[in-house]
Amino acid sequence: MLSLKIHQHLFECGTDEAGRGCLAGPVTAAAVILPDDFSHPWLTDSKQLSDRKRRELRLVIEDAAVCFAVSHVMMEEIDQINILNASILAMHRSIDQLSRTPEFIAIDGNRFKPYGKIPYQCVVKGDSKYLHIAAASILAKTYRDDYMEELHTEFPDYDWLKNKGYPTLSHRAAIRKFGPTPFHRKSFRLLPEQLRFTF
What we know:
By secondary structure, the protein is of the alpha/beta class. It contains six helices and five strands, in the order E-E-H-E-H-H-E-E-H-H-H.
């Protein structure tokens, strides 16, 4: 059973990102503040859940949360500032959009940058330990999936409906055959052989 939050007496948000390892599309982060009486038997790390359960939990989270926000950082910014900084920026932007300011921030992973003067703690595998981080992981994943599914209608050859921009064999085969799109990350090694593309 996951714990609600790190500090039971503080107004605390959880934050997580999705899409760091993708070759195309944004990196997406969410920030969530859950009420103190929140619990749900399914809620855990989004990677351990089926798409159907993630979608169902997203509705539960959005309905129950004190507040939540989701933010994309797009490919151009990823290429300018690198994926780690872009991931942290997406988390900061999500926290920016919360309707209430948290007193403490719990982050999935081991890297973060101070957000104003609000204290924070990084938690490795935090999405399998704390409910608010798990909730953020589900929102980040599903909103990013929605974005990639919309892009799929414009670029069906890359199979983003299924791979969501991750470096699958079929995705890399499509890059090899058709070249990169404007939604591919220029700073990433798109193909193992490190072919140089003219964007």
